Amino acid sequence: MAPFELGGTGPDFVLFRNGPVTLVHREEVLDDTLTLLTDLGYLVPRFDARAWADKAGFASAVKQGLGFPDHFGGNLDAFDDSLREVALGTGQDVTGLVLVFTGYDAFAGRDPRTAQAILDIVADVARFAMLFGRRLACLVQSDDPGLRFGPVGATPVGPQS
């Protein structure tokens, strides 16, 4: 099963076509996008990255917000494994899963390597999930319009217009 129909033009197709991770600077663009995605049946868990002091803060937030199992190890390998389970376990009654990280520039300023690695993992898991007809994406909101990331999943992070 393909994740989209040939000739897709919907707002979710437009979002996904440039890669699974999209950088958003303007809050109103993020809010409008989340409204569209929710209306289309996506789950859109939102995480405030400003609150993450370190990798442990990130791990705690995603464990709770995504319902990771009690044995979740809290490291990036465990995030990769658990996110794969969540992405593949997303029921047929939802269109897909879009992770939303707000204030990501604050976390990236404290731990740039981990911030980049998290986005790379999301991109890799999104590609894996699409093999099974599941949709996974990530919207990364930054208060810093100059924030840039290296390629994730071998795809550059592009802006949402």
TrEMBL record:
Residue ranges constituting the Barstar (barnase inhibitor) domain according to the UniProt record: 46-139
Top-level taxon: Bacteria
One Pfam family this sequence matches: Barstar
InterPro entries named among the record's database cross-references: Barstar (IPR000468), Barstar-like_sf (IPR035905)
Annotated family: Belongs to the barstar family.
Name listed for the protein in its UniProt record: Barstar family protein
Lineage: Bacteria, Bacillati, Actinomycetota, Actinomycetes, Pseudonocardiales
